[in-house]
């Protein structure tokens, strides 16, 4: 069995477009803005259309179609203060953040948002973001070892007093954070997400994180990752939830959805996609077992830079809903969705797709089970 338990309902998150260029590296029209006003309206639309989470991206300089970027933690806090229920996850890079400094920021953001702040630890794929800032670019598995310590340290600081930690990357001496983040019935501290696909990422997710974020995968790819991830978690007497990236193209007809995908790929910004491919495929290929992110991604996969097309959430509302529930049956707890035209397509998803997901889930719940 690939999962320890399956929740009654799958959860939904969306990629915050806080960088320019949209979620596909293509010259196709994307009615999406990266500015603050657009994103406030989008966040409010999302929380009113069944989305529980949003993930703010992190890039520090222009790269592969993202010419402009808003910083993730400050942008996440701004969205939290503009919403009522939405949980916003800020992507962060160990090596560019100290865990205690981020823990302090996170505790404040958690109080201001009444317990809705979270972080996604991204070990890094873009070498220039480190070297241009004079920071060392570690070997792949070393980056993940650092991320593991980062996750361990930040949870300790959020939950313990007089923290002492002696690691290879971080040294903490008798440190107490006050105030701590909120301890709510839903979670004892802000949720910790670990991104990645590699064996090192799976090990970190199983040992240290609350959630594991995967790039886009088909059913076999999800099952393979879940088996590894939850074996690690069981070995450490833990459970971890699984989030899956998917680019969602839901249209009234399957032909319209497939035509949209075809146009996105046909209008790909080839130099940008190829540059991105050259930059990221070394990350997956540098692992011993070749299981890293983007190790086997095709050009077409990388037009959506987190392999979102591979999840195949493309078709009519019925087809998309059925595939989402199929992923849930495998053990997926959350779908992280990207869209071509965010505002209108999140409204369409909330109106057309989400009710079907809940209907199918309800029909598959055994009698007498809440």
Characterize the structure shown.
With 370 residues, the protein is an alpha/beta fold. It has a single domain, classed as Alpha-Beta Barrel (TIM Barrel), CATH 3.20.20. It has twelve helices and twelve strands. The chain has an eight-stranded parallel β-barrel, surrounded by six helices. Strands 5-6 form a two-stranded antiparallel sheet. Helix 6 links the parallel strand 7 and strand 8. Helix 6 crosses helix 7.
The first-level CATH class is given as Alpha Beta
Structural class: alpha/beta
Strand order of the largest sheet: 1-2-3-4-7-8-9-12
Which ranges are low-confidence, i.e. pLDDT below 50, for 5 or more consecutive residues?
none
CATH-level-2 architecture: Alpha-Beta Barrel
CATH topology: TIM Barrel
Mean pLDDT: 91
What's this, in brief?
One of its GO terms (molecular function) is alkanesulfonate monooxygenase activity. This protein is an alpha/beta fold and 370 residues long.
């Amino acid at each position: 069995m690939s999962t320890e338990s399956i929740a009654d309902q799958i959860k939904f998150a969306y990629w915050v477009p806080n960088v320019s260029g949209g979620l596909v590296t293509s010259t196709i029209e994307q009615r999406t803005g990266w500015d603050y006003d657009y994103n406030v309206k989008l966040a409010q639309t999302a929380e009113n259309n069944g989305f529980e989470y949003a993930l703010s991206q992190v890039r520090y300089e222009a790269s592969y179609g993202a010419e402009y970027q808003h910083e993730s933690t400050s942008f996440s806090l701004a969205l939290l203060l503009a919403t009522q229920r939405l949980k916003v996850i800020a992507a962060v890079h160990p090596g560019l953040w100290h865990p205690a400094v981020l823990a302090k920021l996170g505790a404040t953001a958690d109080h201001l948002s009444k317990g809705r702040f979270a972080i996604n630890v991204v070990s890094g794929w873009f070498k220039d973001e480190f070297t241009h800032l004079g920071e060392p670019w570690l070997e792949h598995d070393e980056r993940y070892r650092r991320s593991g310590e980062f996750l361990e340290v930040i949870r300790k600081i959020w939950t313990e007093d007089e923290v002492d930690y002696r690691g290879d990357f971080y040294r903490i001496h008798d440190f107490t954070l006050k105030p701590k983040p909120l301890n709510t019935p839903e979670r004892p501290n802000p949720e910790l997400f670990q991104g990645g696909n590699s064996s090192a990422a799976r090990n970190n997710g199983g040992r240290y994180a609350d959630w594991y974020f995967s790039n886009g995968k088909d059913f076999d790819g999800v099952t393979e990752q879940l088996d590894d991830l939850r074996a690690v978690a069981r070995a450490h007497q833990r459970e971890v939830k699984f989030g899956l990236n998917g680019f969602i193209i839901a249209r009234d007809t399957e032909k319209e959805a497939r035509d949209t995908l075809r146009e996105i790929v046909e209008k790909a910004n080839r130099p940008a996609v190829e540059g991105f491919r050259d930059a990221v495929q070394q990350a997956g290929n540098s692992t011993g077992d070749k299981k890293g992110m983007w190790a086997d991604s095709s050009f077409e996969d990388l037009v959506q830079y987190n392999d979102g097309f591979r999840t195949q959430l493309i078709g009519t509302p019925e087809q998309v809903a059925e595939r989402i529930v199929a992923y849930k049956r495998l053990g997926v707890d959350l779908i992280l969705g990207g869209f071509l035209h965010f505002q209108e397509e999140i409204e369409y998803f909330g109106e057309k797709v989400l009710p079907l997901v809940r209907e199918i889930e309800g029909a598959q719940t055994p009698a007498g089970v809440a």
